[in-house]
């Protein structure tokens, strides 16, 4: 059996970037001490979820992917031998911003990045003010823990991207989130398991938790946590995260399940791309 010990974290905004960075460094250290080989943080992990409002001041949270934040956590990944998925606010060039996850291997090498392709612009998720849609497709990377893909929050409503990640060879997909009560609750329950079974891979979904009180006053929202890890048969691996508290979820992934599920259900054989032409018409 090939087992990977994975960690995902759910945290609450402290009110400042430096303490968020320190908190996540400690979480990575705690995860590694518990034997984790890979960690994924929540969406835009070191900032508030500023999509609640449209305010230029939040552009200052962006930095290049070779900037100090990624450098710090790449050095930490190397020190801890921990594959790390780092959801950051990327400034690609002056005034060009993406919602990005950077993937760092266990030796500290920056393997690449995924840029969120589907950008929401609905009540309190005003992301088109902050991000260009991604332009890097759906890459999958060979890491020390296996074949890793990434997909970010609102992306999860789009089965097409999940499928691309499967076709590109993913055995585990990390899907960092910032979602809150309301329309998304039921979707949160079904989308991860559906993606896992349809594509025969593990889905790992950290979500923010708690109220971002100190940031938006009366407009503040409460994120519901309940981070989850789902196996290729659609079952939860361990319990969901708390819906109130910060937490590190540490879960053992039996990677043999990927092949077993794909052998039992021949979805890759039986899919009919020749009948799906309309999907790729704009
Ligand atoms: N962060 C983000 O994309 N939120 C959109 C709401 C959702 O998809 O749950």
TrEMBL record:
Residue span(s) of domain CN hydrolase: 3-255
Keyword Plastid: no
Gene Ontology MF, one: beta-ureidopropionase activity
Gene3D superfamilies: Carbon-nitrogen hydrolase
Origin: domain of life: Bacteria
EC number: 3.5.1.6
Keywords assigned: Hydrolase
Protein name per its UniProtKB record: Beta-ureidopropionase
């Amino acid at each position: 059996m090939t087992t990977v010990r994975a960690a995902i974290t759910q945290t609450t905004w402290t009110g400042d970037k430096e303490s968020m960075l320190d908190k996540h460094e400690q979480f990575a250290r705690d995860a590694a001490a518990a034997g984790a080989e890979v960690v994924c943080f929540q969406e835009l992990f070191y900032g508030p979820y500023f999509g609640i409002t449209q305010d230029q001041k939040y552009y200052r949270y962006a930095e290049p992917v070779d900037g100090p934040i990624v450098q710090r956590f790449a050095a930490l990944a190397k020190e801890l031998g921990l594959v790390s998925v780092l959801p950051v606010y990327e400034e690609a060039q002056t005034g060009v911003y993406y919602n990005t996850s950077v993937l760092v291997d266990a030796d500290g090498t920056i393997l690449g990045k995924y840029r969120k392709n589907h950008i929401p612009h609905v009540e309190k998720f005003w992301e088109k003010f902050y991000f260009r849609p991604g332009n890097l497709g759906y890459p999958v990377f060979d890491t020390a823990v296996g074949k890793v893909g990434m997909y970010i929050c609102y992306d999860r409503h789009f089965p097409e991207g999940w499928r691309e990640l499967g076709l590109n060879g993913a055995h585990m997909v990390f899907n960092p989130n910032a979602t809150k009560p309301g329309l998304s609750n039921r979707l949160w329950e079904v989308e991860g398991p559906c993606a896992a079974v349809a594509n025969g891979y593990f889905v790992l979904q950290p979500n923010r938790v708690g109220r971002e009180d100190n940031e938006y006053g009366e407009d503040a929202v409460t994120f519901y946590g309940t981070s989850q890890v789902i196996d290729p048969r659609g079952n939860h691996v361990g319990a969901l995260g708390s819906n109130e508290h910060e937490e590190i979820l540490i879960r053992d992934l039996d990677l043999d399940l990927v092949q077993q599920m794909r052998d039992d259900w021949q979805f890759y054989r039986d899919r009919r791309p020749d009948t799906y032409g309309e999907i790729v018409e704009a």
